[in-house]
Amino acid sequence: MNRYFKSAYLFGVLGGLLGIISFFTLSFFNEDPTTLNLIFGYVIVPISIYLALRYFKDYSNHGYISFAEGMSVGFVAYMIIAILSFIGIYLILSFDSSLFELIKSSKIDTLVTSKETIVSQVGDNSYEATLESVKEMEISDVALNDAIWKIVPGLFFTIIISIILRKNPN
To answer: Which among 41, 35, 5, 6 has a CA at the least distance from the CA of 20?
Structure first.
């Protein structure tokens, strides 16, 4: 079982650390690094999954990988990325509460400046509920949101990459 997940652990940890580093670095250049970090996640997650599956196929499984093996290795890789990203962002925001307050105020400002557009699309009640939700936001909400947006595309890319790399022995 360990051979199945050696590559997943390796590239999952690498992707998770890159996610943490990107959040930390982006916090110096932008008062709300969450949006740019999500975009960076859309790049690093598929690359990490591809490398994990390719490494498993080439070095652990004699050049073969089934769809199920690809899904298993990919799942472990993107879950490790998401968990490490959650922990890293949570710790960064816990130690730097002013950054969390900047993120929160930025999200509130975005909602306030876009009120007319949002209300026309979803209605006044939804807008008010969203605004209240953002005002009550906690550090764990920011970290969990980032983790979720590592998992969702991770599943999507794992399916695609597993299909592309699939090669069963004859």
So the answer is: 41
